[in-house]
Amino acid sequence: MEKPGDHATESSETIPHKSNDLENTNHPDESEHQSHNNDQTETATTPESESSQLSLSQVMEAVDDFIQSLSSSTDPLQEIPPAVEPFPETVDSLVSKMESSGLGRDESEDSAFIDAVNRISISVMRLRELNLDSTPVSSWLNRASSVQHRAVSLLDEEFRHLLDRSIENKKKNGDGNNHDHESDQSVLHENEQEEETFPDFPPESIATLKKIAGAMISAGYETECCMSYETSRRHAFKEELAEIGFEGINVEDVQRIPWESLQGEIASWISIVRRCSSVFFPGELSLCSTVFPEQDHSPIRKRLFTGLVSAVTIRFLDFSGAVVLTKRSSEKLFKFLDMYETLRDLIPAVEESDSDLIQEIKLSQTRLGEAAVTIFGELENSIKTDIGRTPVPSGAVHPLTRYTMNYLKYACEYKDTLDQVFQHYEKAETDETEPEPERNQREDDEEYKTSAFARQMIRVMELLDANLEVKSGLYRDPSLRSIFLMNNGRYILQKIKGSTEIRDLMGQAWTRKRSTELRQYHKSYQRETWGKVLQCMNQEGLQVNGKISKTALKERFKIFNNMFDEIHKTQSTWIVSDEQMQSELRVSIAALVIPAYRSFFGRYKQHIDSGRHTDKYVKYQPEDIESVIDDLFDGNPASMGRKRT
Amino acid sequence: MRPAQDNQGSFLGRISIRRNQFTDVNTEQEQEDLELFQKHIADRFTELLSPPPPPQPPSDETNTAASVPATEQIMSVTWLRKLMDVFLCCEAEFKAILLMGRDPTQISKPPFDRLVPEMLDRSIKALDICTAVVNGIDSVRHYQRLAEIAVAALEQRPLGDGNVRRAKRALSNLLIALSIEDKENVSGGGRGGGSSAASKGGATIGQLKSSSWAVGRNWSAAKQIHAMTANLAPPRGNEAAGLPLPMFIMSTVTVFVMWVLTAAVPCQERAGLANHLPVPKHLNWAQSLVGIHEKIGDEWKKKEKKGSAGLMEEMTRMEKLGHSLVEFADGFHYPAEKEAAESAAAQVAEMAEICRRMEEELVPLQQQIREVFHRIVRSRAEILEVLEQAGKLSAPVV
């Protein structure tokens, strides 16, 4: 054995240590330890610690050589080299010192300490591997492993303190913006945008954590290290969830609380899940990678990150599962879709881990999707079952039309999601559905082919149309029937034009078709109401033997007046709420009636003019016609001071 | 859904034809199904109570003390996994009886208008218990890791003071965790966990508790189980021969399985559960179930007094081994005495074996419980769907 001898001469300064027995070595250390405690001034401790570090570094060198010799030497080791012999006690005194001062105060001291612990660990490990039968060696090994345990326990404690410190900081800082989380979603959205550092550790803590983790793992204390890390991070996460107001709410409570309160819970859920996707999970991953950076720490990183992600994610899924179980109703659709989207966006963050929950997330999504489909189906149902027997007065837009269209408009804000949902659902239902007859007919339409949701929309529209068709039958006056259909059709068309989403979804062809239909209602209204009016201004039948028959003429004027009055009376109570359509209607009526009346009036008025009671027959000057027409569709029976009969 | 809407007339016609068929089939086929169901329930639980001998003679392992291999014993993790399988089988069979080929309106009429909602309410409660138990298994995994530390430390050769101290630290934490009183055993963070035992060393129990999840504030497994049994009564008279019987059986099985799970692992608030579980004693299908219940109940009552984290067989043995290994650690002087070291080594090997089994089976058990959770959700949805259909059918047709 060459090397130990070499060292004995080289590291002569360690001889005093070496010659002392265990108790003696402890004494100077304890005194140093005390001076460290009593005297806070740096100057008093510096020379001493410098001198001890000098000797320490030399001991460490000796240990390094010793470790080297353990793996290279072929002779069985009989005893520990003198320079290395007191090393356990040296480290023990370092532990005592560290116990009182704590890590993270002086980086070089920390490093020296960690280096010493690492050397103890390596020596212990190598000696164990050699499995020697020498009593002095075994005794040294026992001392070394004792010290190692003491040192690593200290590191473990420090590790947890450092990890927990971030939670405490968070608590102090977090109070300020606490209430923001509880307000509505848009605010939460803004919060998300702001720069958030998570988890919030000062860089020096991170550096220390890294060192400790490395030392613990190489000492074989991986399990303790991971346990401390895991416990602390879970705790931090729980705090984080509680802060946002998401505290495990169970399935039963979710069923019990009113929707209003549940909405609040859903809002916090959405907010926290989003923050997990964008901030917390990536933050945890990077913390994990920083604290356990080594190549061979990779499985540890994965395991810790996966464990945390799984534990948290399962909470989220429990909640969404509980919400889906609640009774379905139309107002829930949008919240369900929000949740669906939130889960979808969570997947990439969870995929960074080895979590086996991806399938469960997708399952939860499917459930939310199915619920959305059902709720959407409820809309269809409510259209089908809306079978009131009383027509809406004045032919105005039916509440069902308003409700359906507004609902669809909101739904279209989720059109991509709904499309996914319906596609998924259709795929699942493929076996059950019968061949759809509309398919061929619509194949020319691009939108139809691509979008499952568009098909749903069209179905709803068709149902609505069919329902309105039936409702229009409640009006006995065919003109009012047309006005009703026009009003509703126009409302639908305007809603569609007003929302890019619906417009794109339904396609241009569909919109064109709706416009054509509207024009047809318009025409049939004109025909119904004004056809007869125009007919009475016909020249036919007015001439008897080539001469104008005054009686016939008077009769015609009378008929016109009566009809016109009647129209005025009834149709000014009708409503056309869309201003443009109202004016279009009036203009078109005017264009139809005024020239006809003007010409009728101009041609035949003179024949009655001579007689008395002219105004008995000629009630309207051509100029009056326009102002009467302008009264129509105002929904205002009082405009002419006439009573309704 | 659509065909039913579009041509309700013909759909109704179809239903009424089927209904006529039912009356014919009802008496014979259904009786047969019900008897078969009861028989299957009885068989499955009989197998759980006394598993058939293993096909091969047990190999020479350290663990030959019990006649039944430890893995098969009641409350072992393997057994619990079997129990979950049994539950899933029973549930599937029950659902087939309840829903398949049945006229939807039948289960919306009395007495089902009362029985079905009650059953659904029980299923909701079972879901929360599943969640609590999954959380509980997380704690068991934590115990497993503590035990693994002890095993790793005590397997070191030569065994030194450092190793023993390390093992002792882990074991002390393990024993504290295993023996916390039920009342204290709330996963919620609400309680001040300032117990003296948790003050030093290792990831403390206080910390562990504060990092695990609760099923909600004030939630109590005991209360839930209690509520699940509150309106659970065997059907009488006419009902005893029909559908109410399998409903009662399935509900009993569900409550029982949930009760076993809460007994097995740490679970939020379960005080008093040891005594409380009314199981129907005189019914044929329930014989073995009652047998299992009595076994577990007795064990529970014993443990309840001194506090226990759970009755899972592996945990119980872990606790025993933990105590004697702590004793070993306390009396340890370097170098180790040969005799003490040898007996400790055997215990360490047993502990290692327990850890290995836990490592293999706890996560799958957790997954099975999640599966049970999903199954219950799915069934609930299917039943509701049928009820809804029934509601539409019975609503006045327009």
Automatic annotation (TrEMBL), chain A:
Taxonomic superkingdom: Eukaryota
Domain Exocyst complex subunit Exo70 C-terminal: from-to ranges: 268-631
Region (Disordered): 1-60, 168-202, 426-448
Pfam families: Exo70_C, Exo70_N
Ranges annotated as biased composition (Low complexity): 41-58
UniProt KW keywords: Exocytosis, Protein transport, Transport
CC annotations in GO: exocyst
Bias-annotated ranges (Basic and acidic residues): 1-36, 168-191, 426-442
Gene Ontology MF annotations: phosphatidylinositol-4,5-bisphosphate binding
GO biological process, one term: protein transport
Known function: Component of the exocyst complex.
Family: Belongs to the EXO70 family.
Protein name as catalogued: Exocyst subunit Exo70 family protein
From TrEMBL, chain B:
Region named Disordered: 46-68
Family under the similarity heading: Belongs to the ROH1 family.
Organism: Brassica carinata
Protein name (database record): ROH1
Compartments, as annotated in UniProt: Membrane
Keyword Membrane on entry: yes
UniProt membrane topology term: Single-pass membrane protein
Main location: membrane
Origin superkingdom: Eukaryota
Lineage: Eukaryota, Viridiplantae, Streptophyta, Embryophyta, Tracheophyta
Keyword line: Membrane, Transmembrane, Transmembrane helix
GO cellular component, one term: membrane
